[in-house]
Amino acid sequence: MQPVLWYNTGVLVLWYSAMLDSVNPKSAIPIHRQIGDQIRRSVAAGLLEPGDQLPSVRELAARLLVNPNTVAKVYRDLERDGLLETRRGQGTFISPEVAALAEADRRRLLAEQLEAAARDVHAFGLSEKAALDLFREVLANRRRGRQDKQ
Predict the structure, then answer these.
(1) What are the Cα distances from residue 116, in Å, to 7, 81, 112?
(2) pTM for this one?
(3) Is the domain of 84 the same as that of 15?
């Protein structure tokens, strides 16, 4: 992941370009959901951790070229869900209680990906056994790739 530095009220903050770098206005997925999902994925993947500060509403809206009200809605929704907390005069931060939520999000996000893969398995006419064998092979290759890097 390529880090990006941005300056915010006297503090140099590290931000990752793969997080919140763009939205697709032509997508069938609403923009506020795209932004919220990117934040959730970043938390679930451990790229954003408890206590990490998010860009201000205006900064993120300018970066994504969206209406600030859209970003404000995302932040409100994620705060309501317990993922974010707003500290008056300081900004918006990843909530300290995010660990349990991150696990639930990881499972939900993975289930969505597996559902899409299951649709493809049926569309391609693969048997369940062939699909599971292929999945095991992919997992084994991934595991070997990680061992090679260590």
Answers:
(1) 39, 25, 6
(2) 0.64
(3) yes
pLDDT in tens, 97-148: 887 766 777 788 788 888 888 999 999 999 999 999 998 998 898 888 765 6
143 and 113 together in one domain? yes
Domain count, the chain: 2
User: 10 Å Cβ neighbour count for 99?
Assistant: 11
Q: Tell whether 110 and 92 lie within a shared domain.
A: no
Closest CA to 60 of 11, 6, 96: 6
| pLDDT, tens digit (0-9, with 9 covering 90-100), for 31-67 | 999 999 899 888 888 888 899 999 999 999 999 999 9
Range of the domain at 91: 3-96
Measure the CA–CA gap between 11 and 84, rounded to whole angstroms: 20
Asked if residue 14 has pLDDT above 70, the reply is no
73 and 132 in a single domain? The answer is no
